[in-house]
Amino acid sequence: MKLYDELADWWPLMSAPEEYAKEAEQVARLLCPDGADRRLTVLELGSGGGHLASHLKHRFAMTLVDLSPRMLDLSRSLNPECRHLGGDMRSLRLGETFDAVLIFDAISHVYAMDDLQAALRTARAHLRPGGVAVFCPDFTTECFNPETTVGGTDGPDRGMRYLEWVQPEITGTAYHTEIVYLLHPPDGTLRIEHDHVRLGLFSRQAWTLALREAGFGEPVIESLSSRDVFAAKAG
């Protein structure tokens, strides 16, 4: 995906860190449902540019993992106090465990059931007994809403806008979205780029079964910004 590679420097203008504040509050509550009085350790898989972590780091000791070196560089500049590691959520094994594991919307890039189960097993492998894992897919089948959204903002010397068009067709456990980026660099020119993205779409039942297979207990399903979020403890 171009946005996570050659266009990574534009990510802060597409999705500003401050836009994550409200979701971070809800995620923090799910990561620490019992209100622990100590600073919990959290492993975030697919942490991207670190925008969600920029809010969570004040409460948790965060270890951030992503597959994209450029996104990790962005996160390091935003969250220098956090530990950053490169790795694939489907196969990562750090040989250590955490109080909680989080996969935010990066889990949406997993569109095959085998890969979803692999990512959930990675989360389980890094979770201490009694710990909780939180998963935040963009959509489940039950709340799938094909729509067109626009956004973006301006920086001190450049700006960007985007249009994301979620396609209504579902192919197996995947759907497709088209994203067009309009980039306005400091030299005043206009650059147009495009991403075609395949994303995962699983039912609540499929999620529940996959979590059980990975070694989790019965998940709690909550709503976060009109989407389903799954919180499950180690079984």
Describe the protein's architecture and organization.
By secondary structure, the chain is α/β, with parallel strands linked by helices. It folds into 2 domains: 171 residues, Vaccinia Virus protein VP39 (Rossmann fold), CATH 3.40.50.150; 60 residues, S-adenosyl-L-methionine-dependent methyltransferases. 22% of the residues lie in helices and 34% in strands. The longest helix has 13 residues. It is globular, with a radius of gyration of 17 Å.
Order of helices and strands: HHEHEHEEHEEEEEHEE
- CATH topology of the largest domain, which one? Rossmann fold
The CATH class assignment of the largest domain is: Alpha Beta
CATH superfamily of the largest domain: Vaccinia Virus protein VP39
Rounded mean pLDDT is 96
Biggest sheet layout: 7 strands, mixed
For the largest beta sheet, what order do the strands appear in spatially? 3-2-1-4-5-11-10
- Beta-strand portion reads 25-35%
Quick structural gist:
The chain is an alpha/beta fold and 235 residues long. It has helices at residues 11-14, 21-31, 53-56, 69-78, 113-125, 204-213, and strands spanning 41-45, 61-66, 83-86, 98-103, 127-135, 148-151, 159-171, 174-184, 191-200, 220-224, 227-233. The strands form two sheets. A seven-stranded mixed beta sheet has the order 3-2-1-4-5-11-10, with helices on both faces.
